[in-house]
Design goal:
The chain has about 200 residues and is mainly α. The protein has helices spanning about 15-40, 40-45, 60, 70-90, 90-115, 125-135, 155-170, 180-200, and strands at about 1-5, 140-145, 150.
C-alpha cells in the first residue's frame, strides 16, 4: 500500500515514529531470542479481562510485541507511513499522546470483547492513525494490491472498519486478527481528531 498525493517531505521519518519503530524492533528481538527461556511474549500479551491472567499494564505492553516477522513488518510500515505525516502535522508530543491513547483504547476493547485469546501488536494504535489520516487528509489516494485503481483515504477508513466489524462479529476458525482492537483504536482516533479540530479551530489540508 502506498499513497501518491504528497512528495518526499512526507516520507521522512519523524523522531517519535523512529523511536517507536526502534522500541518495537528491540522487543521483537527479545521475543525471538528470549521467548523460550523467559516467556517474553506471554508477559507482554494482553489477556481478556475475565481470563484470570489480565494485568492492567498489558494494555500498554501488548502494543510493543508482535506475533511474527510479517506482523511487525506490516505494522511498522503503517506506523511510518501514517505516523510520520501526523507527527509532522501535530508535533511530537501530541502525536505520542494520540498514539498511546489509541493503543490503550484498542487494548481495552480487545480485553473486554474477546474472551478466548491473548493479543499482541501495534495494529490498534495504527488503526487510530488511519482514522486520523482519513479525516485530516481525506482525498489522499492509496494504491492497494491487488486493486488497479487508487482509493481515497476517506473511503479506505470505511473499508477497513467494515472488514474489521465483519471479522469481529463473524470470526473464522483460523482467524487470529484482533478485529475489536482495530475498531477500538480507530474509533478513539476519530473521536480525538474531531475533538482537537473543534478545539483548535484549525483547518488541515
Amino acid at each position: 500500500m502506498a499513497y501518491n498525493n504528497y512528495g518526499n517531505s512526507f516520507q521522512r521519518t519523524t523522531p517519535v515514529v523512529l523511536n517507536l519503530v526502534i522500541i518495537n524492533g528491540l522487543v521483537f528481538m527479545a521475543q525471538l531470542f528470549m521467548d523460550k527461556t523467559y516467556g517474553v511474549t506471554n508477559m507482554l500479551a494482553l489477556y481478556p479481562i475475565g481470563s484470570g491472567y489480565f494485568k492492567p499494564w498489558q494494555l500498554v505492553t501488548h502494543m510493543f510485541a508482535h506475533a511474527g516477522f510479517p506482523h511487525i513488518l506490516f505494522n511498522m510500515y503503517g506506523l511510518w507511513m501514517f505516523g510520520s505525516v501526523l507527527e509532522r502535522t501535530w508535533g511530537p508530543k501530541r502525536f505520542l499522546i494520540f498514539y498511546m491513547v489509541c493503543g490503550l483504547a484498542a487494548g481495552l476493547a480487545q480485553a473486554l470483547l474477546v474472551k478466548d485469546a491473548p493479543a499482541v501488536g501495534a495494529s490498534g494504535a495504527i488503526m487510530g492513525l488511519v482514522g486520523a489520516f482519513g479525516i485530516l487528509f481525506p482525498n489522499t489516494e492509496f494504491f492497494i494490491i491487488p486493486f488497479p485503481f487508487p482509493i481515497k483515504a476517506k473511503y479506505l477508513v470505511f473499508i477497513m472498519a467494515g472488514i474489521d466489524l465483519f471479522g469481529g462479529l463473524h470470526p473464522g476458525s483460523a482467524d487470529n486478527i484482533a478485529h475489536f482492537a482495530h475498531l477500538g483504536g480507530l474509533v478513539m482516533g476519530v473521536i480525538l481528531v474531531l475533538i482537537w479540530n473543534k478545539t483548535n479551530r484549525k483547518t488541515f489540508y
